[in-house]
Structure formats: structure tokens, C-alpha cells
Amino acid sequence: MSAKAAKPRIETPFYFGGLASCSGVFFTHPLDLLKVRMQTVKGTGTSIGSVVGQIAKQQGISGFYKGLSAALLRQATYSTVRFGVYEAVREKLRRPDGTVSNASGLLAGMLGGAIGGVFGNPADVANVRMQNDGSLPADQRRNYKNIVNALTRMAREEGISSFFTGLGPNVIRGMIMTLSQVATYDIFKDKLVELGMDGDKVITHFCSSMLSAFVATTATNPIDVAKTRIMNSKTKEYKGLVDALLTMVRKEGASSLLKGWVPSFFRLGPHTVLVFIFLEQYKSLYINYKLRNMQPA
Predict the structure, then answer these.
(1) Is 56 helix (H, G, I), strand (E, B) or coil?
(2) Residue pLDDT, tens place only, 72-101
(3) If you ran DSSP here, which 8-state letter would residue 77 be given?
(4) The domain 16-292: what is its CATH number?
(5) Which of 54, 62, 239, 270 has a CA 20 to 30 Å removed from the CA of 33?
């Protein structure tokens, strides 16, 4: 995610990661909603087609954008922090020759994901609940109107502690997601550049992001299913992350850990591609603007 080596190093704003993530979520929110709906269904036999048909029949096209305001706030908090911390730590660990080791990149990803998971948790709880509300019986729905209404009601009806429901799994997921998505993006991109691809070309960004999306989807899916179940539960059904994972395996089999993998990848793949293409373009525009306005020495 850097400019060509011949150019002077120019730091870009820390919030570009959050801005790129918000840009991407407009296109991929329906796929994220579909993933959540499939992950909260217990048992087997639910297909993507049946869930899509149910949403379209009961709620129409607008049903696929339930919880968009919460998703935007989540990206504005979670992704801004995780990308910002990742870039800051990565720069601190940069070697004298300007390179960053894979280990340093992975460490930066873990730290960024953990801190981002904390900041993004309140909006994430609201996001999961709003996305899944339409699948519940009418008398069990929370009927949050928007993200402000959701957070206000959560605080009033359940206390501020509800903002941190599922915090443990969310932090772990954030760590795994960022090191397997953001850090591996840089690793894959560096490898592709070594093979002769141009690091500033969109095709390089596309290939790097698709590879990182596959790794990230597979690595985070079990945690993601458990996190979604915990955040959506009204009865404190699970004692924690480990209990949720063990209960799922015991009652539904090991395959339950990969529930929603296909919609998750079809969401995370395009989302990762869009985020990194947006991010690279924002950075390129900013760097070129700075270079044009540099005063000669």
C-alpha cells in the first residue's frame, strides 16, 4: 500500500482506511446481511437461495439494506482504528532499508485488529441485531429504526454493558481478520511485485485483495459465527466464545463452524477488493497532490 520506491515517502491520513471501508460497504452490505441471516439459523438445510427469497418476499429490495447505518458507523470506527494502528505500528517496525518483515506486518495487524474491535463493538452489536431482525417472529423483533435509535435503546433497556456484548470474540476476530486480510494483502502485493507486476496497477491490487480475502474468510469464519450468535442472543445462551464454539460443534456438528462461508466470501471478496482499490486510489490522489505542491529545495 505504498507509492513507488523512487518517490519520497509521504504519510497519508490515518482515516483513509475507514473512508475506503465505508465506500466499500455501500456495495457489499446486502451480502453481509445475507451472511448474518445464515449464521443465525440453527440446524442444517438452509440454502442461500431460500434466505434471499425469504428476504425479497417479506421485505423487498430495501430488506437487503437493513442496518446500513450501523454498518457505516462500524466501519467508521472499527476500520478507521484498525487501519490507522496497523499503518502506525508497521511504520515503527520498518527496517533501515525501508522494508517491513512479514512478522512485523502480522504483529501490526493483530494490534490494529484488537484495538479496532474494541472501538467498533457497539456499532457491531447494533449492526448484527438490525440485520437479523427481519428473520425473527414479529413479537421478538427489536425494530431499531436506525443506528442512533439502536444505541439509545440498548443503553436504556440493557445498560451500557450491552455495547460490549461479544467483545471477546469480536476482538479475537478483529485480530485474525486484520492480520489475515490487511497484513496478507501487503505480503501478497509484495510477492506479486517481485514476480514483475506493477505495484501501482489496479490488477495487482485486485489479485492481492482476492488472495487475502480467501485467507481472511477461512480464518475468521468460526469466530464470526460464534460472535454473531452471541451478539444476537437474548437469553445469554452462551457463556463465551469457547462455550459457543463447543456448543455449536456438539449440537450442529463441525460444519457449523463454516456456516455462511460462501456468502461471507462473496461479501468479503468484493469488499476487500473494493476497500483496497479505494484505499490505493485515495492514497495515490493524496500523494500526487502533495508531490505537485512540494516546494523545490
Answers:
(1) helix
(2) 999 999 999 999 999 999 999 999 988 899
(3) I
(4) 1.50.40.10
(5) 239
